[in-house]
């Protein structure tokens, strides 16, 4: 028994230690799980870019240059868009005039990280930066068709806010949070959806949240993000069009209501 184990171990060691001796160069963007000393944060996209080496694999030293290059190589984002996103995020590093942030900086609650996320628990209710299956399922239940519409995305956002406000006494969601949150909810459309309709393939979205992401072929600009954010924002409005059929109501009821208000 012992000998067998020994041989198996030895064989495994030899196979895994064997250098890549054929013509294939190692892929620098191969997926690798983070090591115990690597930082990861609440952003599924930055985590996955780090897992693929588009951002530093240790989750540190996210300089403007590294962010611009990583978003360009990994997501086909225009350099000006990468620069804009980085400029908004550098406050995460508390040092004055910081030139980089780390993924761990992003975990600080109520700075950039916020309540009612699609896939993370509220800080007051659990771990606010690791994937949480319960929370994810609560969001995912609204993606009811193979092609997810802006309304379905908005439903996830509204539901998570409702759930948070009802269950979390420390629920906090400012106007600034709203702007960031809309950007995050729109992000799957930006990364691999359809700008025309603001919709996104559910399989790809599930793949992204559960495993990683796939790259878009068209260049993405800041205008594209603003456009998608506006579409999702409009979809969070719970009013519909149309008129109410007042004439068909009994007269007493109509008068009662108009009299009350
Ligand atoms: C410098 C660039 C970026 C920074 C600093 C950043 C940071 C963050 C942070 C702090 C959160 C957590 C918010 C929360 O509490 O829910 C977050 C969430 C998110 N980010 Fe990013 N992000 C960046 C770029 C991107 C990009 C390019 C995408 C995809 C196109 C993306 C997709 C998402 C999504 C989908 C979420 C929501 C996760 C959830 O609600 O569970 N992010 N990001
Ligand atoms: C951080 O990234 C910059 C490139 O943006 C690079 O020049 C520098 O060597 C990196 N520093 C560390 C500590 O990795
Ligand atoms: C940060 O930058 C500002 C403006 O360039 C400068 O006045 C200030 O001294 C810097 N602070 C530190 C701690 O380097
Ligand atoms: C996952 O989220 C649920 C619902 O908010 C929460 O009760 C639970 O503690 C979270 N789990 C972790 C590991 O944070
Ligand atoms: C969604 O994407 C998957 C994976 O690329 C593909 O197999 C599927 O046909 C797509 N669904 C629709 C409705 O386009």
TrEMBL record:
The protein's matches in PROSITE patterns, at most eight in alphabetical order, are given as:
HEME_HALOPEROXIDASE
Q: Which residues does UniProt assign to the signal peptide?
A: 1-17
A single GO molecular-function term is: metal ion binding
Composition bias of kind Basic residues appears in 251-261
Keywords attached to this entry: Heme, Iron, Metal-binding, Oxidoreductase, Peroxidase, Signal
Domain Heme haloperoxidase family profile as annotated: residue spans: 27-227
What organism does the record attribute this protein to? Answer: Decorospora gaudefroyi
Entry's Pfam families? Peroxidase_2
Q: Where, by residue number, does the polypeptide cross the bilayer?
A: none
Similarity annotation: Belongs to the chloroperoxidase family.
Name the record gives this protein: Cloroperoxidase
């Amino acid at each position: 028994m012992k000998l067998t184990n020994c041989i198996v171990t030895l064989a495994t060691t030899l196979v895994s230690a064997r250098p890549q001796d054929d013509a294939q160069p190692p892929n620098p963007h191969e997926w690798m799980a983070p090591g115990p000393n690597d930082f990861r944060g609440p952003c599924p996209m930055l985590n996955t870019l780090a897992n693929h080496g588009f951002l530093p694999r240790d989750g540190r030293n996210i300089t403007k240059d590294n962010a611009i290059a990583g978003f360009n190589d990994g997501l086909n984002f225009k350099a000006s868009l990468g620069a804009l996103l980085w400029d908004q995020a550098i406050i995460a590093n508390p040092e004055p005039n910081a030139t980089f942030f780390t993924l761990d900086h992003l975990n600080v609650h109520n700075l950039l990280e916020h309540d009612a996320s699609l896939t993370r628990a509220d800080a007051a209710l659990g771990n606010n930066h690791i994937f949480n299956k319960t929370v994810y399922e609560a969001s995912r239940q609204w993606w009811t068709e193979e092609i997810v519409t802006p309304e379905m995305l908005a439903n996830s956002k509204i539901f998570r806010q409702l759930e948070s406000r009802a269950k979390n006494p420390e629920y906090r969601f400012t106007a600034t949070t709203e702007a960031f949150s809309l950007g995050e909810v729109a992000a799957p459309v930006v990364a691999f959806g359809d700008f025309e309709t603001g919709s996104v393939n559910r399989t790809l979205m599930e793949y992204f949240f559960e495993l990683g992401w796939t790259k878009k072929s068209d260049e993405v600009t800041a205008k594209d993000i603003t456009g998608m954010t506006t579409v999702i924002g409009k979809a969070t409005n719970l009013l519909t069009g149309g008129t109410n059929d007042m004439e068909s109501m009994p007269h007493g009821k109509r008068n009662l209501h108009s009299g009350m208000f």
